[in-house]
């Protein structure tokens, strides 16, 4: 057993303790039956992707730090007992004996509840920890320890810890992650594209994308645009069996959006109240882009504004719109992200069939 020094903290007559210990041991003192997706009485379910991300982050390769403490609670007053002793100067100090050897750890399994921070702790479990995170790698984790808290107390602590915090701006986190090399796969692929769209002169979105926490009236959040480009699979577009380079993607997107602007007489640079220049309209437009580019390749046409405008007209024709109608008049389809995505997918499928039929002039080889 190992003697772990504790600092007692008192708040309105309630004492808890702060200490530090090896998270690879601490996690083994929790309930080992807890697994991804399991419903818990005072916690959210574990998410495998989050565990994997944290495991990689704290690996010796990344050298990620977790300075915030996890919150724990003991289950049995007769085990993991807080003890105290008098120091030479007369001060009272607190400590607890924690298991250290493998047989001791097995004996103390399921003696603590994780009140908050279970993903941080379970990232060090044998099931999820990185293979480079060996036992001899020095890594300590701070913890706050409550003595046999009730289920109600654990629920209250979890709720207060998570609900009372103001969420950090997602775009700001994205910006910081880009500087720290912590972007996920989709973000790594599309962050440079979005950044170029926000800064290059050819882009209709220049100066209109919120890359961090800056204020831009009716601006488009970089995080949301990355999500849209990933959904549209822009990075998987090919010409002559070659993936488009980042520069080619930026040029194609800029040409494509400029064509929509000129077709409808709208502006992404100076947006009004119209649906097309809102994020919902932009989502619809970008989700259709692969269909437009694929048609250009099929017809061996240059992907220029005139071509894009001609396909927009064909999309209107396919949908049977009148002269005064636009593709953005059905406002209900743009109120929810799911509805907009479905409409874009349906329109892409219908447009492909319409273009194929138009190009064949209705020829039926079986007639």
TrEMBL record:
Question: Which InterPro entries does this chain map to?
Answer: DGQHR-contain_dom, DNA_S_mod_DndB
Q: Which organism is it from?
A: Ruthenibacterium intestinale
Please state what the protein is called. DGQHR domain-containing protein
Q: What CDD domains does the record point to? A: DGQHR_domain
Q: Give the highest taxon in the source lineage.
A: Bacteria
């Amino acid at each position: 057993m190992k003697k772990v020094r504790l600092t007692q903290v008192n708040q309105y007559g309630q004492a808890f303790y702060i200490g530090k210990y090896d998270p690879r041991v601490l996690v083994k003192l929790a309930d080992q039956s807890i697994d991804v997706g399991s419903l818990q009485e005072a916690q959210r379910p574990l998410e495998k992707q989050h565990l994997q991300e944290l495991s990689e982050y704290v690996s010796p390769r990344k050298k990620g730090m977790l300075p915030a403490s996890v919150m724990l609670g003991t289950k049995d007053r007769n085990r993991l007992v807080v003890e105290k002793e008098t120091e030479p100067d007369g001060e009272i100090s607190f400590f607890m004996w924690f298991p250290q050897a493998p047989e001791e750890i097995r004996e103390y399994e399921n003696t603590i509840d994780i009140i908050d921070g279970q993903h941080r702790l379970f990232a060090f479990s044998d099931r999820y920890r990185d293979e480079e995170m060996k036992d001899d790698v020095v890594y300590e984790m701070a913890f706050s320890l409550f003595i046999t808290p009730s289920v109600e107390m654990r629920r209250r602590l979890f709720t207060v810890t998570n609900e009372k915090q103001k969420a950090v701006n997602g775009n700001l986190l994205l910006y910081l992650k880009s500087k720290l090399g912590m972007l996920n796969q989709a973000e790594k692929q599309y962050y440079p594209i979005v950044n170029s769209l926000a800064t290059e002169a050819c882009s209709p979105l220049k100066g209109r994308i919120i890359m961090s926490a800056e204020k831009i009236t009716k601006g488009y959040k970089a995080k949301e645009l990355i999500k849209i480009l990933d959904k549209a699979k822009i990075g998987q577009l090919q010409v002559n069996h070659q993936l488009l380079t980042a520069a080619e993607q930026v040029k194609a997107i800029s040409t494509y959006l400029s064509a929509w602007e000129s077709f409808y007489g709208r502006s992404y640079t100076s947006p009004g109240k119209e649906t097309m220049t809102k994020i919902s309209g932009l989502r619809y437009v970008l989700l259709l882009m692969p269909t437009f580019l694929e048609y250009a390749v099929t017809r061996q046409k240059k992907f220029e504004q005139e071509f894009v405008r001609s396909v927009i007209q064909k999309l209107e024709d396919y949908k049977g719109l009148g002269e005064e109608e636009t593709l953005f008049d059905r406002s209900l389809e743009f109120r929810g992200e799911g509805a907009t995505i479905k409409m874009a997918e349906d329109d892409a499928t219908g447009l492909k069939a319409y273009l194929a039929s138009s190009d064949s002039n209705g020829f039926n080889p079986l007639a």
